[in-house]
UniProtKB/TrEMBL annotation:
GO terms for molecular function: sugar transmembrane transporter activity. This is Glutathione synthetase. InterPro entries: PQ-loop_rpt (IPR006603), SemiSWEET (IPR047662). It is found in: Membrane. It is a multi-pass membrane protein. Keywords: Membrane, Transmembrane, Transmembrane helix. GO terms for cellular component: membrane. The keyword Membrane applies. The keyword tRNA processing does not apply. Pfam families: PQ-loop (PF04193). The chain crosses the membrane at residues 34-56, 63-84.
Length: 89
């Protein structure tokens, strides 16, 4: 396997699945104390942009990695917004 490809795959794996522990914890506990709404909105805007980029460039690796990242990070933002609306911040 090409070294450059391997480095890219490792980077995609770790940056994509870095959100799994936070997502799992948030889904289990519903505790979003200390989570920045602004950061998650900005992050998910970037992720959606990467999805569009991957689609337009026909780059399946970028597309898949960012679709997975979106589905891991979006629930955290959603629960954070719900908690904020309920006054739990």
């Amino acid at each position: 396997m090409d070294t450059t490809l391997l480095v890219g795959l490792l980077a995609a794996f770790f940056t994509t699945f870095a959100f799994a522990p936070q997502s799992i914890k948030t889904l289990k506990t519903r505790n979003t104390e200390g989570i920045s709404i602004t950061m998650y909105i900005m992050f998910l805007t970037g992720v959606i942009s990467w999805v569009v980029y991957g689609f337009l460039r026909s780059d399946i690796a970028v597309l898949i990695a960012n679709v997975i990242t979106f589905f891991l990070a979006a629930p955290v933002l959603l629960i954070t917004l719900i908690n904020y609306k309920r006054g739990k911040k």
